[in-house]
Fold:
Amino acid sequence: MALKNKVLHGVKWVTFANIFGQVLSLISIVIFAKLLSPDDFGTFAIIMIFIGFLGIFSDMGTTAALIHIQNPSKLLLSSVFYLNIFIGIVLTLAMILLSAPIATFFEDPQITDMLQIVSLNFIIVSFGVVQKALLQKSIEFKHLSLVQSVAMFIGIIVGISSAIYGLGVYSLIAQTLVSSIIGTAMIWFYTSWRPEWSFSFTEIKKIWKYTANLSVFEFINYFAQNADNFLIGKYLSSGALGVYSLAYKIMLYPLQNISRILVRVLFPAFSKLQNDNKKFRQVYLRVIFYISLVSFPIMSGLIVIADVLVDVLFGDKWQGLAMLLIILAPSGIMRSVFTTVGTIFMAKGSTDTQLKLGTINAILTVVGFIIGLNWGVNGVAFSYLIVNIIMLYPIFKISWGQIELSVKDGLAEMRPVFIISILMGLGVYFSDIFIFNTLESQLLRLILMISVGLLLYLIMLRLHFGNLKSLISELKK
Structure:
């Protein structure tokens, strides 16, 4: 199958999996929010700070390296496989040793057992790292999408069932472990590759520079992106962190379910185009246009419907969530495009440049969080927005420069959709002010606001771009 057809086929399957996952996640979040308290969400967020932190080292960048290398040897694949299992065991032991001090730091004894149980996830996922990389490299996203969907569905069913039986935070832990077990087992089922009984440090050294820079970048980036959770959990409260983490999770939807659809599929494709900047640039411009087409109106609409959405879906115990969504939504617009720039650096092999840029971003982000903490969770969210605005130009200038794309041309590709999304948001806002806010039913009000927003958006797209079918066909070229 030609590269273009494989990419389109991959996008279709990953899109299906992510739409399915998005709907499933939204339903599960609403159910968990009804069954659990903000304190439960806050406790789980604290646990995931440290699990996610050690998870950075779970594959040491080897997945990206295997995709980047054109023809990895059998010896390299086996070496990476055993290296990842070793790392998984070390990380599990490290978390078991650190669990008690972490619980003491946050003054929450129950965290000890929770961290020790969920740390088993490191060993579980380590068995599927190479197989997953090979499926991504060959752009076999049909199987990866099935794995993701089935594992997620079973995990959520187990998690919700556990919450109903009163297991509290442990229900979220059960969901995590079950999803990983199912996912790893299915990855083995769908791949024919099996490790040989061989290991070579020489082979590992060949990818060391690439993986080292990428791992350090991911470490710094993770630290920056999770410093807010750490600071809120330590200096405010678990309840405040629970509300903040839920708002952040909702804001991340476009990144996880739209941007990453394309990033996952296009990284192996971009790696094949790493020496052809013209073709790389053409494909990339279509990617960011597609992302803007979906994520921009979602975030614009979220700003307008936040109050009604929280009232309908989450209820009174999640007070403060709406304001956080309003503050975080503009960051969601920027981050949906920022997500793609890492693909450029990795495909071009410029992980050293990515590391330097990430370090600067991390410093500004953490400083912003510390300053914003003085004004509570809203201050932290607002500081995140300010840092994203400050870093907008440098991130685009440096990353897009790798493929000889100017900031002016890149932004011009997304400008029409950005303007249309703002106009759509204003249309929904004034419709609500003059018509919908008099309705007694908040659910009906929410449905009408979303319907008007969707209708306005499609009409304006039609007026600006012409036939929408032609627009979609153009994106496929």
About this structure: The mean pLDDT is 83. The first helix runs from residue 3 to 35.
